[in-house]
Amino acid sequence: MDPVHKEILRKRRLDLSNQILVSDTIVQFLYQEGILTESHVEEIESQITNKKKTLRLLDILATRGPRAFDTFMSSLGEEFTWVRDLVLQDLQSQHAAGQCSKDERNIPEAILQRVPSDRELSRLASGLGPEWESVLLDLGVSAPALYRCRADHAHSTREQALAGLVQWRQSTGRSATVRRLLQSLQAADIHPSVLEEVFQ
After folding, report:
1. What pLDDT sits at residue 19?
2. Taking a C-beta distance cutoff of 8 angstroms, is the pair 186, 3 a contact?
3. What predicted TM-score, i.e. pTM, was given to this entire model?
4. b/e per residue 80-100 (b: at least 16 CB within 10 A)
5. Rounded mean pLDDT of the chain?
6. Residue 100: pLDDT band by 50, 70, 90 thresholds?
7. Angle, CA of 66, 73 and 41, to the nearest 5°
8. Could you tell me the sign of the dihedral formed by the alpha carbons of 58, 88, 83, 26, in that order?
9. Where do runs of H (alpha helix) occur along the chain?
10. pLDDT of residue 196
């Protein structure tokens, strides 16, 4: 999925989870179109509330390739046209403002050079979503270490990401800078604004 599309869906997570019902037609449409697998459908439907189902769907969509965003927009159909229009307005605004470049960033040089704090890593972990493993692999965290993070925090993607980020900072020392984080986010096709929001 395009980093700009991922960023828009990330920013609209709460709006989407409060305004759409995914079980009836959306999940089945995405399954029919080959965006979701059978195991994805089962995972989404196993969530207790509609809000959790929608949030899980959004996490999965971000990993499902270049067709995922447009197909999701189509799945909203006539039932949720106002939601689709809201998301498409965000997309138009991003293009109009020239925010589509991966290299765009508004983080001061002084921040880029320093080591992030616990609080900053925690905020970043909240925004990474399912791509946290790709980011940490690029940062040099080993696959066995990532497995331990998953096993130790099996019920929380955020806690898995935070554990990995803290381990990276501890093992890397002064080289564990915000600039290095930015480089790995870009390598994982995550929009720089995810990091920018941490330091606002």
Report:
1. 84
2. no
3. 0.49
4. beebbeebeebbeebeeeeee
5. 84
6. very low
7. 75
8. negative
9. 3-11, 13-19, 26-32, 38-45, 50-61, 68-76, 81-96, 109-112, 118-128, 132-139, 143-152, 157-172, 178-187, 193-198
10. 80
Q: How far is Cα 5 from Cα 69, in angstroms, rounded to an integer?
A: 7
Backbone CA torsion sign across 138, 132, 115, 199: positive
| Distance from C-alpha of 184 to C-alpha of 187, rounded to nearest angstrom | 5
Q: What is the pLDDT of residue 15?
A: 84
Distances in whole angstroms, Cα of residue 127 to Cα of each of 70, 102, 145, 159, 160:
22, 17, 21, 12, 12
Distance CA 132, CA 146 (A): 10
Q: Minimal CA–CA distance to 133: which of 97, 91, 161, 174?
A: 161
